[in-house]
Amino acid sequence: MLGYVNEMTLLALEVSMPQQVAQILLIDDEQESCKALSLLLGRAGYRVNSCHSGEKALALLKKQSFELIISDLFLPGVSGIDILKQVKEDSPQTCVILITGNASAETAVEAMKEGAFDYITKPFHFERLKLQVAKALEKSQLVIENQYLRQQLHRRYKFDNIVGTSQAMQQVFTRIEKVINTDSTILILGASGTGKELVAKAIHFNSPRSNKPFIAINCGAIPADLLESELFGHVKGAFTSAVSDKPGKFEAANGGTIFLDEIGNMPLQLQMKLLRVLQEHEFERVGSSRKIILNIRLLSATNADLEEQVKAGRFREDLYYRLNVIPIVLPPLKERRGDIELLARFFLNKICKEMHRPLMTLDQESLQAMEAYDWPGNVREMENVIERTVALTDGETITCNDLPPDIGKANREIITASPQLSSTGIDMNQALADIERQMIQQALTLGSGIKARAADLLRINRTTLVEKMKRLDMRL
Ligand SMILES: Nc1ncnc2c1ncn2[C@@H]1O[C@H](COP(=O)(O)OP(=O)(O)OP(=O)(O)O)[C@@H](O)[C@H]1O
Ligand SMILES: [Mg+2]
Asked: N or C: which end of the chain has fewer CB within 10 A?
């Protein structure tokens, strides 16, 4: 299940590479031998295109990609080596096998130096070529799979993995977009489980540093006396247990992004060193005086009130300003209830896929209950609740009874909140108007102020909602 599977396993589950017949491009100016080879390769199960000149091959390569190219080395005009060079520039994962009638050691060496997969001398047995073709295709498939996996990893942290249409989340997206192409220091603020780490990864994986490391370190999880060496590394003998030189996380992240989580827990004396690193872009390992130059982007996050900590003298004011160049604030989920339904469906979809079960649905009441609940553990709590509910529910529809009792109860409280009739009686029209007003107000809050969404929640159409709001003297 989610919590027990590492990221690469999840990726492996998600990856289902389309398996297709390999496309081979055959280039030979001798039409007869080209035809014969093309036939043999076709019988061996490959799709083959043929060209009789280097020029035509280059033109075709501009329009179409191939997994493997088999080319005669000596062609009139554009030679096999020219094609090899062009292919390696345009699509390095494509393998090239060169064939020639007059073998010379130099051309063979040149071909291999330019990145040919193999070099075969005529005459040759087709079986020998077939073997090399299979090996070359296996290699190019591996390269492609590798690229695919890397793209998938990046896509996981593209914006479409951050769900939210509420105004608060739209502001977060706008801000992320503004900062991705800069090296600005960003402080991500928000309660536990609101998505701080997700935002940090989105910034890194959408930034020009995305191919360099993203290293996250939780300042709260490492004992204060070890944190300095963890971050900055040490040299042998710097302290009793320093038996050899060891680089720290800052060095490991060089060129990329470092994410200091729970920055509020950083000890004061280390805050000083961090400030210097940010100002001077250099530091020394513990126990060494050799300066190491850094090129790093720093992101940090906290769920603590850093301003309060500054006032209390537990956090350096100068460092606070340095870290907080651009703040990104993630509000608690209960302040963006309009996102709850979207998030619930997103997690349901994701978790059903991970558990290899057909997509389940949430009935209207269970959705209302989730929208009414306060989610003290924010988005993480919702993800966990949905994971548990999917695992424990047999049917295809999730109802209030399948949800943890606290959440199921949230809905019933709203539904049963009705006025009590006393012996003095009640103005029924007034009481009903009050209930209507409250319901509309709640629906508008849940629907992030969008009337169509509020009308859906109340199962009336939008025009009726607007008429009722006019009649009840509510602000439109
Ligand atoms: N807007 C969102 N859309 C989709 N998933 C989200 C969203 N926000 C958070 N999550 C998911 O919720 C979980 C918690 O998010 P994350 O770890 O980023 O929170 P956090 O703020 O760093 O929490 P903590 O303070 O406890 O470390 C993660 O699995 C994350 O993918
Ligand atoms: Mg976190």
From this structure: C
Q: State yes or no: pLDDT of 263 exceeds 90.
A: yes
- State the pTM of this model: 0.61
Q: Which domain holds residue 405?
A: 337-416
Closest listed ligand to the CA of 188 = 1
Task: Say if ligand 1 is within 6 A of residue 197 CB.
Answer: yes
Together in a domain, 303 and 175: yes
- Between the alpha carbon of residue 79 and those of residues 49, 96, 113, 346, the distances in Å are 18, 13, 16, 54
Domain count, the chain: 4
The answer to whether residue 421 is domain-embedded is: no
Cis peptide before 76 (omega within 30 of 0): no
**Does the structure show a pLDDT above 60 at 414?**
no
Instruction: Tell which one of 163, 197, 219 to mutate to probe ligand 1, the residue whose CB is within 8 A of the most ligand atoms.
Output: 197
Identify whether residues 310 and 369 lie together within a single domain.
Answer: no
Element (H, E) at 15: none
Q: How far is the centre of ligand 2, averaged over its atoms, from the C-alpha of 305 (Å)?
A: 15
Contact 313, 157 (CB under 8 A): no
Look at residue 317 and tell me if it is in a domain: yes
